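Researcher: Let's do a round of design. I'm pasting the structure tokens now; please hold your answer until I've finished.
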């Protein structure tokens, strides 16, 4: 079997395992906190939010650093370090006795939550530019599949074996992913560019923030996650408003999974279309479709209507991550692709942090339905920014960053 094909299959399997294990604990997060003591519902909800968000804060800070290290030393060591780190933190979570300990372990977990973005950067670096969208879309199917099935298996394991053994089983699965990468992956090292430029962190970050297309890609990446996470904590409450059924948690899970199903079905297709007609064009289409499919969710009167529009929204949003990642892969020089993708991942985690806070604030003032309208408007703003960037003259990102580095060298 071709090395690149074998690497891709292994990465797909590991993405499924890691994404699944990362979401296994979500169904019983609040229930696990309640086992630490006799706490009020308000106390449990507050700490559940803090513990959930802690991982994203540290991951936001670490992603570019992991990318920079991967550019120098290869992606395989980073994949192994991250999976071992995840396995260790999850294992220790099964033995915590206080919310503070749980919080700090989740915070540490964020420092090593780089497996999935690093795997995307690795596959991107090993893939021909002309089919990057299709391959990244296919890889995302493994990620989304794990996220869909993870909570189901997590809830089942917790009911059968209890919380502690669920953490141990989850840790063992992450450890298995580390061994699969160690023995199965053969990394084809990148051919360095002839331009002997050593890019500083500041020149790369300045280049991203000043380059029109790259900045827009980063903004859109944040908007995608805000769109996902602004509604997620409120979905069960919204479902409860639409139905009188008793099994609200189950129905909320189905509603949330509807978006994941749409994502799963169309991620590869959108990536392939991006390879064929251009990533900017496909990204523009997806931003408009997301706007169109979110707005009706604010006005539904029955649960089945909400599920249909969540499915359609998932279809639209499913192509955005592989398309934006393929755009970064196309624009970034080989020498710094890992770090640039690390910044792209940081912007994604920034959306994970902003989304729940924004949704909570808006719903608290003007209701849950208004969250859909505000989120939809963000996708429209993203489309406007991308449209303006496409109308202006193209900028070569490699030349742009090299200029920033030369300017920095001159000043120092």
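Researcher: That's everything. Go ahead.
Model: Designed sequence:
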């Amino acid at each position: 079997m071709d090395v690149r094909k074998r690497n891709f299959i292994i990465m797909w399997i590991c993405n499924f395992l890691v994404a699944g294990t990362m979401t296994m604990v979500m169904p019983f997060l609040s229930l696990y906190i309640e086992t630490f003591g006799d706490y009020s519902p308000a106390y449990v909800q507050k700490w559940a939010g803090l513990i959930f968000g802690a991982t994203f804060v540290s991951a936001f800070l670490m992603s570019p650093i992991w990318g920079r290290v991967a550019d120098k030393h290869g992606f395989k060591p980073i994949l192994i370090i991250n999976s071992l780190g995840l396995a260790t933190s999850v294992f220790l979570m099964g033995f915590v006795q206080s919310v503070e300990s749980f919080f700090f372990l989740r915070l540490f977990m964020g420092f090593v939550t780089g497996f999935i973005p690093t795997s995307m950067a690795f596959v991107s670096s090993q893939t021909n530019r002309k089919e990057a969208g299709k391959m990244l879309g296919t890889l995302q199917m493994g990620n989304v599949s794990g996220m869909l099935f993870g909570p189901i298996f997590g809830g089942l394991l917790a009911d059968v074996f209890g919380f502690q053994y669920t953490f141990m089983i989850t840790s063992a699965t992450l450890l298995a992913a580390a061994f699969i990468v160690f023995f199965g992956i053969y990394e084809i090292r990148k051919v360095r560019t002839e331009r002997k430029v050593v890019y500083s962190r500041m020149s790369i970050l300045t280049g991203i923030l000043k380059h029109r297309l790259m900045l827009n890609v980063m903004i859109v990446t944040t908007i995608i996650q805000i769109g996902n996470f602004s509604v997620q904590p409120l979905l069960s409450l919204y479902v409860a408003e639409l139905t009188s059924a008793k099994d609200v948690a189950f129905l909320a899970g189905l509603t949330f999974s509807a978006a994941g199903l749409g994502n799963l079905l169309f991620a590869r297709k959108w990536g392939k279309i991006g390879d064929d007609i251009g990533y900017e064009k496909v990204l523009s289409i997806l931003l408009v479709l997301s706007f169109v499919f979110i707005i009706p969710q604010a006005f539904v009167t029955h649960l089945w209507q909400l599920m249909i529009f969540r499915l359609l929204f998932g279809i639209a949003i499913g192509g955005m991550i592989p398309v934006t990642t393929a755009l970064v892969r196309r624009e970034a020089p080989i020498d710094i692709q890992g770090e640039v993708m690390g910044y792209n991942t940081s912007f994604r985690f920034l959306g994970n942090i902003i989304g729940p806070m924004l949704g909570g604030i808006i719903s608290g003032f003007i209701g849950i339905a208004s969250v859909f309208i505000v989120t939809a408007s963000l996708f429209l703003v993203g489309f406007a920014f991308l449209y303006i960037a496409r109308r202006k003259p193209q900028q070569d990102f490699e030349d742009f960053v090299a200029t920033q580095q030369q300017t920095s060298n001159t000043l120092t």
